[in-house]
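User: Can you recover a sequence for this backbone? Please restate the input before giving your answer.

Assistant: Of course. Working from this structure:
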């Protein structure tokens, strides 16, 4: 009977749809965080701003989910993805499906966004990367979608130079860090007010990520079905990033054929 029950349980587990993103709650140095890891090799991670009208922001997770359900999909994990103006237009660079809604801003300015260095979350087929803004401009990666925010939390393994260990400025904060190979994006939101220094340290020292980007403060919200969270908040959001359940990933690029014959250049090199 035990073996039969175990067999039935295994079949039931295999029959369930795979959960998009993996969310959990962890405490680091006295602060609890909700953390969601998105595997870009398995999950379809997308940015969203305006609905089909092209002018109305989705604003809420529920509105976006309803629109996706009309297409036969569903919204899994989601969070706000960058700062925005009162009309919900993005403050910095915003690209969605190769369409640029706002150009990149490279100069310093007021508020957290202008606390340089800031950065860009770049989404490409099956990968995501947090890239410091000036490096992004220099390298000009071809992002399917991208959102700019600031400040950077971690830059190549170093905390932002303006972060103070003894700062007293504490807020709810959310952000994202990416693995060096771009296959995993880790999103985190603090469940209580936290300093920039503590938040950046969590990404670097607890999650082991060398590049991480701040999204926003008290307006931050999280949708994490695994944790029973679908934050509503007190107003509409601007850019939203989330995993679309049921949508297939783009195909892998074709492998380059391996030629058995050396090319002319290769032959010349061999002869030298």
């Amino acid at each position: 009977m035990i073996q039969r029950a175990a067999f039935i349980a295994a079949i039931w587990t295999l029959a369930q749809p795979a959960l998009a993103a993996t969310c959990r709650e962890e405490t680091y140095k006295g602060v609890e965080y909700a953390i969601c890891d998105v595997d870009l090799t398995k999950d379809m991670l997308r940015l969203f701003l305006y609905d089909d009208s092209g002018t109305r922001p989705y604003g809420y997770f529920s509105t976006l989910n309803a629109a996706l359900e009309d297409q036969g999909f569903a919204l899994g994990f989601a969070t706000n993805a960058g700062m925005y103006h009162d009309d919900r237009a993005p403050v910095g660079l915003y690209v969605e499906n190769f369409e640029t809604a706002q150009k990149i801003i490279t100069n310093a300015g007021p508020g957290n966004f202008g606390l340089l260095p800031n950065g860009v979350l770049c989404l490409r087929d099956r990968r995501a990367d947090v890239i410091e803004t000036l490096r992004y401009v220099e390298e000009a990666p071809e992002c399917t979608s991208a959102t700019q925010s600031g400040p950077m939390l971690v830059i190549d393994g170093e905390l932002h130079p303006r972060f103070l260990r003894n700062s007293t400025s504490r807020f709810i904060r959310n952000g994202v860090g990416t693995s060096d190979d771009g296959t995993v994006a880790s999103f985190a939101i603090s469940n209580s007010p936290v300093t920039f220094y503590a938040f950046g340290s969590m990404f670097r020292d607890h999650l082991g990520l060398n590049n991480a980007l701040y999204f926003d403060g008290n307006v931050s919200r999280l949708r994490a079905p695994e944790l029973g969270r679908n934050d509503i908040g007190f107003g509409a959001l601007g850019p939203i990033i989330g995993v679309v359940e049921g949508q297939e990933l783009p195909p892998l690029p074709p492998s380059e054929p391996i030629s058995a014959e050396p090319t002319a250049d290769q032959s010349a090199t061999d002869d030298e």
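That completes the design. Confidence is low (pLDDT under 50) at residues 1-19, 258-272.
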